[in-house]
Design a protein that fits this description.
homodimer; alpha+beta; oxygen-dependent coproporphyrinogen oxidase; 8-stranded antiparallel sheet; two-stranded antiparallel ribbon; 9 helices; 11 strands; 23% strand
Chain lengths: 323, 323
């Protein structure tokens, strides 16, 4: 790790995120033989972006793995809201975002994001923080998948603090929540913002541990479910559930707002949107169906570490719908 | 018209909007034989709603004609932004909204909204205003349709003031604009908010003239284009363009925000979203194609009253994209 001078951490973090982008793309391509990411490159003095998109795969209907690094004269409003003291401070920024919209409705959609902000200062040491996380949005729920996903997330955090997993898990449940629906987007995972452990080295080590945990968390689930038989009913439910994904991203997500406000390429910011989506007025699942089970069992904040396939304990959650 | 006491205009305006809902639903059903609106009724002391939705028609893939009337203790934040002096004032509200997402890509999507707010006061005369408008979003452009739509809108306004059409038309171009795309949502029409002519009677007469103009503006276009041959290419472009409709409604529309913040039924507020939508990363129309012509000729603010099918004059417009 280089010294604590302007832009130095951004370069190190950026290099790690680029390697992670390579690993994730290679693993996704290996899981989806014959289908490849298309890479674009955008480079200016202040901004470097390397979006990669895999479209119309057999396993991934759309997968987006976006690396970006930028400098700017001031933070966009969405980021300043939480840190008004940084108005008029220039900043450096690097991020990796991963979105997978699988073709098979039994494979959950996945999202991961890791980002690093650094606001240099001539008068004091630079301000910096990490943000990000990873979360899963199934259409059809499998307890063993949810348990595997959360145990894997727990393992990524545990060496850095005994309470980190439960803290990030709770923040994930709170953040990926659609207030107008009174419903979480998925089964959660980890979410953190403004993250600083004792020092930047240790924080970056945690970030690497979380970043490296994405593939071991997600790929086994993809491989286990990608050939699960399905028909028009399951496809229709998948398109319907993707509507919630769109509603969250466009109505609720600070990351999308940040991206649009900071003048990033709109096609990159909105690349996370699913390839095909449906809205059906007043749709309700049949009583006792697997579709109903998703909402009743999986779309509740739950302690997945304490859950086995036979036992499902629902814990309390913020369900203050505005509707 | 009854006297100027609490709620009186809301009742008169509400009665008109209910009649208009009946007319529009009857005309849509006549244009789409064998397909019918499904009506729901929601009634509490403070709120009456009568949403009607036609799904999976041969002509209308989805049509929503929503009547609503409500009283509330205070204006929601989205409405207070423009009128901070009304904080802590109770209000009455009635509205009709119309959204048509046609099955045939050559039939444009249509939107109309009429709404009336009244904030009673014990100390002075009540504050009131109308808002609303109507606008058209084609996937494939036809000059004769655009000219008909705008001439019809002009005729609805002209008896009430010589500059009203051009004022409402400009406001429509400004409002139905996606800043992140640097692109209007469609070919516009009329848009107004906080509208008060000399008195409430004359303003209500203008509102009726505009409401009554919706069917003569839209139906001839529907009937002219509903059997236009199309294939997978045109369907794909339709789903792609519907993505812009979703982006506008969820990212830009004050009406959607108002609906969600004021605690209306989420299924009613989001009923405007298209039935099926697609996002394709980095899609660009072929050079010289009809799809390119939509963007180049129709998705520009234009003086359609001064336009004939042979001559297309593009006038300047706010194209300050943030991307």
């Amino acid at each position: 790790m280089t010294n604590d001078v302007r832009g130095s951490y951004v370069i190190d973090v950026g290099n790690y995120l680029k390697q992670l982008q390579d690993s994730i793309c290679a693993a996704f391509e290996a899981a989806d033989p014959g289908h490849h990411f298309r890479e674009d490159l955008f480079s200016t003095e202040m901004h470097f972006a390397r979006p990669r998109v895999l479209s119309d795969g057999a396993v991934f209907e759309k997968a987006v793995v976006n690396f970006s690094q930028a400098s700017a004269r001031q933070l966009p409003p969405a980021a300043l809201q939480l840190r008004p003291q940084l108005a008029d401070r220039s900043f450096d920024f690097t991020s990796l975002s991963v979105i997978a919209h699988p073709a098979n409705p039994f494979v959950p959609a996945a999202h991961a994001n890791l980002r690093f902000f650094e606001a240099p200062s001539e008068r004091s040491s630079p301000e910096w923080w990490f943000g990000g996380g990873l979360d899963l949005s199934p259409c059809y729920g499998f307890e063993e998948d949810a348990i595997h996903w959360h145990r894997n997330a727990y393992s990524a955090c545990k060496a850095f603090g005994s309470s980190l997993y439960s803290q990030f898990k709770r923040q994930c449940d709170d953040y990926f929540f659609l207030p107008h629906r009174g419903e979480p987007r998925g089964i959660g995972g980890l979410f953190f913002d403004n993250l600083q452990l004792d020092d930047v080295h240790r924080t970056f080590a945690l970030i690497r541990s979380i970043g490296n945990a994405f593939l071991p968390g997600y790929l086994p689930i993809v491989l286990r479910r990608k050939d699960h038989p399905f028909g028009p009913r399951e496809r229709a439910f998948q398109l319907y559930r993707r509507g919630r994904y769109v509603e969250f991203n466009l109505l609720c997500d600070r990351g999308t707002l940040f991206g649009l406000q900071s003048g990033r390429r709109v096609e990159s910011v909105l690349a996370a949107l699913p390839p095909v989506v449906a809205w059906t007025y007043q749709w309700h699942p049949d009583s006792g169906s697997e579709e109903e089970r998703l909402c009743q069992v999986f779309l509740k904040a739950k302690d997945w570490l304490a859950t086995t396939s036979d036992e499902v304990s629902v814990i309390g959650h913020n369900t203050n719908s505005i509707s």
